């Protein structure tokens, strides 16, 4: 199985039995990452090679200083100043180049690793935003965060020691040539060390793969549970579920801890062996070297050189072990990243552009059906239109399909059958800009960013000056409360708008939609937290304004419903009645029953509010 960038990769393929090609997949992953950041890799690898070259050269310099300067000086009792200076200059020069190249190696490795991480995070974010609502519904936010963090980090982990390992490989090749030119017996010791090291790593990687996979999954799970708990902190507190929620989080965290300890245990068992092997090879080489020196096969300078070469090789060889040791987790992380990058089902946009216009749009549902991915058919044979400048109210019992219809109107989802048209164009054929310019959806649960009121209203859209924003605030009935905020439009609203009430947040998001001058406004119970009288005033205002948009509104309150030019009544995903509110009240009993029930509930709520106010006053 290959892992080209963006290829479909199922993390489940990494189950214990499917990791035979782990080394190949890990190396391919490294190859892909080098292609993303070739220059920093080149700098890091060049630095590493110069560094190792200098280290090897140092072996010769030390051999020469010991055998050519120190020993003769010791034997003759005198030493020439020029020779000493030359020795010092040689040692200093090689050391300075060695340390500078070490800096280049580290900088190259860092820039490469963090650069690839940033690139993948960008790709993942772009992908998340391109994927349809149905995909997001199946993937908890915490898991998505884990993909962009823990998985990206795991996938790129081998990059940190990679240039070092490349330099080491280069060093090994040069050292092997040097060993063979000096003495075949010493060369054989080195030759035996590398296959043993690779074999040990192969066993380690095979054992590590399933553990690394489980640990990555659990990281995502802990992130998902944590995100949900913190997100729902208010509910947890209000329902007194702190202990149960802590227990739920602890269970996931404990499982992750156990999995990580399992990973640690395996590392603890293998890493000393992987690190110790080169040290053992140094000892063996020293013994063999001494025997060869005594036998007269090598001289003192050669003995010092090979001994130093072996001892300086022992540490860098571990870098190869680090890269190999990080491969299992990196393959798992990469597969999880690719799982997102290769996810399909985007809402592809068309190429048709809606002609520029400020006139209200026409929305048409033509024999539309929609089934959720689980097969549940939420809408069937829905046919109706919202004529330009009119307001159509969607009314129906809970679960009858109103929100699904609103999402279709805003093209958050596409119908499974039938067509949704905007000004006569199939919405699937329209380009993104035309759709964004024309339609605005306001949902029941308002999302407010942790920013100022102004930034929340403008959302970075060009041309929205303060005058336009105030007009939108007036139309959304939000002008007074924004004027009363300490810093007006510059007031910071806090994370998710915590400093605002539910009704204020709703009006802010309505104003945000209106600021873009949409030609079609889709309101999915968008003013439910607003006082009923204010809600009616807002909707009446929208309807009467000179540049009125067409409005599709999911409505529950009788006064709101009565404002609509037409009511579309949904039952079980089908339209069972259509017409003006007054007419439906007379002719369609289920409609009359539902609206009366809404009215009764509203009256009871108002009574409770007044009663509580009076109690409070008393
Ligand atoms: N993501 C989903 N997956 C599967 N079924 C879904 C999903 N979302 C909604 N449904 C189902 O589709 C049907 C229509 O849901 P929808 O949210 O459109 O109803 P609604 O009329 O807006 O309800 P409410 O008034 O309670 O908001 C319901 O039966 C609901 O259970």
From TrEMBL:
It is a multi-pass membrane protein. The chain crosses the membrane at residues 41-67, 79-97, 159-178, 184-204, 303-324. It holds the Pfam family ABC_tran. It comes from the Bacteria. It is found in: Cell membrane. GO terms for cellular component: plasma membrane. Residues 42-329 form the ABC transmembrane type-1 domain. Belongs to the ABC transporter superfamily. Lipid exporter (TC 3.A.1.106) family. This is ABC transporter ATP-binding protein. It comes from Glycomyces terrestris.
């Amino acid at each position: 199985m290959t892992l080209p960038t963006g290829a479909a990769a199922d993390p489940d393929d990494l189950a214990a039995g499917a990791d035979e090609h782990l080394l190949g997949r890990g190396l391919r992953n490294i190859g892909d990452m080098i292609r993303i950041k070739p220059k920093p890799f080149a700098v890091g690898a060049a630095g590493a090679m110069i560094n190792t070259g200098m280290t090897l050269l140092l072996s010769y310099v030390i051999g020469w200083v010991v055998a050519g300067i120190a020993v003769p000086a010791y034997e003759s009792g005198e030493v020439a100043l020029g020779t000493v200076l030359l020795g010092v200059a040689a040692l200093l020069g090689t050391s300075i180049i060695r340390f500078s190249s070490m800096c280049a190696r580290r900088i190259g490795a860092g820039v490469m690793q963090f650069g690839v991480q940033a690139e993948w995070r960008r790709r993942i974010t772009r992908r998340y935003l391109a994927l349809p609502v149905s995909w997001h519904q199946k993937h908890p936010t915490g898991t998505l965060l884990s993909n962009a963090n823990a998985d990206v980090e795991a996938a790129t982990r081998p990059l940190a020691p990679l240039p070092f390992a490349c330099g080491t490989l280069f060093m090994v090749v040069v050292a092997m040539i040097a060993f063979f030119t000096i003495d075949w017996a010493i060369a054989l010791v080195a030759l035996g060390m590398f296959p043993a090291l690779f074999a040990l790593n192969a066993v380690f990687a095979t054992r590590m793969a399933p553990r690394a996979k489980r640990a990555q999954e659990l990281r995502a799970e802990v992130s998902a549970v944590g995100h949900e708990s913190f997100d729902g902190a208010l509910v947890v507190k209000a329902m007194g579920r702190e202990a149960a929620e802590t227990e739920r989080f602890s269970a996931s965290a404990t499982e992750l801890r156990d999995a990580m300890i399992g990973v640690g245990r395996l590392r603890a068992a293998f890493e000393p062996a992987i690190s110790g092997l080169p040290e053992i090879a140094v000892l063996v080489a020293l013994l063999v070297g001494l025997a060869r020196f005594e036998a007269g096969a090598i001289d003192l300078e050669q003995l010092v050189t090979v001994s130093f070469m072996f001892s300086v090789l022992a540490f860098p060889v571990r870098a190869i072990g680090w890269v190999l040791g990080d491969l299992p987790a990196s393959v798992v992380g990469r597969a999880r990243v690719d799982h997102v990058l290769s996810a399909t089902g985007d809402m592809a946009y068309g190429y048709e552009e809606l002609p520029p216009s400020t006139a209200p749009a026409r929305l048409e549902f033509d024999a539309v059906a929609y089934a959720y991915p689980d097969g549940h058919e939420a809408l069937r044979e829905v046919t109706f239109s919202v004529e330009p400048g009119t307001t159509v109210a969607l009314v129906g019992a809970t679960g009858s399909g109103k929100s699904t219809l609103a999402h279709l109107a805003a093209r958050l989802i596409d119908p499974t059958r039938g067509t949704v048209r905007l000004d006569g164009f199939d919405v699937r054929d329209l380009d993104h800009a035309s759709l964004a310019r024309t339609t605005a959806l306001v949902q029941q649960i308002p999302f407010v960013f942790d920013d100022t009121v102004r930034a929340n209203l403008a959302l970075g859209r060009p041309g929205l000056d303060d005058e336009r924003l105030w007009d939108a605030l007036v139309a959304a009935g939000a002008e007074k409360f924004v004027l009363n905020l300490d810093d007006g439009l510059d007031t910071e609203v806090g994370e998710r708008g915590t400093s605002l009430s539910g009704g204020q947040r709703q009006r802010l998001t309505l104003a945000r939609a209106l600021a873009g001058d949409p030609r079609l406004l889709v309101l999915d119970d968008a003013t439910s937290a607003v006082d009923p009288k204010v809600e009616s005033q807002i909707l009446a205002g929208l309807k009467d304004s000179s540049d009125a948009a067409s409005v599709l509104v999911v409505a529950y309150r009788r006064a709101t419903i009565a404002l609509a030019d037409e009511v579309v009544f949904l039952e079980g995903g089908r339209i069972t009645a259509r017409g003006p509110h007054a007419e439906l009240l007379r002719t369609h009993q289920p409609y009359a029953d539902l609206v009366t029930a809404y009215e009764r509930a509203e009256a009871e709520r108002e009574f409770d509010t007044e009663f509580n106010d009076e109690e409070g006053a008393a």
